[in-house]
Write a structure and sequence with these properties.
This protein is an alpha+beta fold and 141 residues long. The protein contains three helices and six strands. Strands 1-2-3 form a three-stranded antiparallel beta sheet, with no helix packed on it. A three-stranded mixed beta sheet has the order 4-5-6, with helices on one face. A hairpin with a 7-residue loop joins strand 1 and strand 2. Helix 1 crosses helix 2.
Amino acid sequence: MTETNYTALVTATGGGRDGGRAASDDGLLDLTLAVPKEFGGNGGATNPEQLLAAGWASCFLGAVKITAAKRKVRLQHLAVAAEVTLHHRHETEDYSLSAVLHLEVGGVDQKTAAELGAGAHRICPYSKALDIPVTIEATVA
């Protein structure tokens, strides 16, 4: 079987997360960045944590669909909400991330929903790439 590869190229400029800009080489992504008000910034624009959450939620949803198809589980409803939290330890100027993935599945029981979440977490590229604390909360819709 042939391996398929895709590489995304996004360049951050200016102030980075504080008033900078992030743009993809194809022009489809072109965003102003801002530090969230909750973190002492001005807000008013997206931030890296939102971008990570959007990518991870989308990717994880696809991984759930693949996991369900392999198990021959028919889904009636599927949604993923990703919470990505930025932590800052002031005394050491150390930053870290944690995440909660809220999986909502219809047409299955609670045990199956949890199994689909665990299976998706094993194959999702974002889940595999990020070495951060992650909680998966699966619920039946």
